[in-house]
Amino acid sequence: MGDVPAARQTLQIVKYLAGHGGPVRASTVARDLGLPRSSVYHLLAVLQDEGFLVHSPENQTFALSSLVADLGSSVLGANALARFAQPVLERLVAETKLPVVANLGVLNHGDVVYALKISAARAPAVVTSMGVRLPAHLTATGRAMLAALAPAQVTAIYPDAAALVSRTGAGPRSLAELGSILAETRERGYALEDGDITVEYAAVAAAALDHNGYPAASVGLTFRGATVDDRERAALGRATRNAADALSRRIRGRA
Predict the structure, then answer these.
(1) Closest CA relative to residue 220, chosen from 110, 105, 125, 108
(2) What are residue 208's phi and psi, to 5 degrees?
């Protein structure tokens, strides 16, 4: 099979940006990869046009967009990821000893798509069946994954406040408010949601990361909000964090 230099260089650039962990100047990419600057600028422009990169005009830097994570999540997130996650979620539900629903969600642009649901006895009847899509910024599963993305990737998903829809009148109304929620999620180690999707239900969730540090999925627990106090919610949040780390290890990602 003949070599295709442009294709090889494009893949080198994507792998380099995935492993760099932040926005990078084109000149730095060219220098570190030993590629001609003209070729790098051209390939970066093509990747940006196709939606794989986000560009900061102020800093003249490039970073991978959420589309790359979405593609990875799509590959893993169908039946294969659900099979990896099922024993993790079953163990999580059994260990909580509460009427909870465990969910596996994958990020698709501004939505969470649910790939697996495991319910305990007397658990609430939630809407998160396989294939259901919900706004990521309103769900604990979505917030956990958004908090694991770089700020530029979150900005690409939510270019303005008009993208922040509401279902119950709750949830972030501005990009600044969403940013605060995601910052709190990162500091806490898991995401919280209470009444943003269904008024009487609350949820906690944590992201499982792939080998590049991108959120391949998130593990969540949904429960009746009035029946679980703050101490129990914190314990459930830590349980989702442990389960998400276990899933990360199962897919050879980063715990």
Answers:
(1) 105
(2) -100, 130
Q: Report residue 30: phi and psi, to 5°.
A: -60, -45
221 burial class (0-12, 13-18, 19+ CB within 10 angstroms)?
A: buried
* pLDDT band for position 207 (cuts 50, 70, 90): very high
- In this predicted structure, what is the pLDDT of residue 67? 65
Task: Give me the pLDDT at residue 108, please.
Answer: 85
Which residues does 45 contact at the CB level (< 8 Å), separation at least 6?
none
What is the reported pLDDT for 1? Answer: 42
Q: In 68-145, where do the E strands start and end?
A: 101-108, 111-119, 133-135
Domains and CATH numbers, the chain: 5-64 (1.10.10.10), 69-250 (3.30.450.40)
Per residue in 142-158, pLDDT (tens digit) is 999 999 999 989 998 99
Provide the mean pLDDT of the chain. Answer: 87
Distance of CA 143 to the CA centre of its chain: 7
The number of angstroms, rounded, from the C-alpha of 73 to the middle of its chain's C-alpha atoms is 9
Question: Which residue carries 């627990």 as its tokens?
Answer: 221
The amino acid sitting at 43 is L
DSSP for 59-106 reads TTEEEE-HHHHHHHHHHHHTHHHHHHHHHHHHHHHHHH-SS-EEEEEE
CB of 159 closer than 8 Å to CB of 230: no
Query: Which amino acid type is present at position 114?
Result: Y
Reported as a single tens digit per residue, the pLDDT across 67-105 is 666 655 554 445 677 888 999 999 999 999 999 999 999
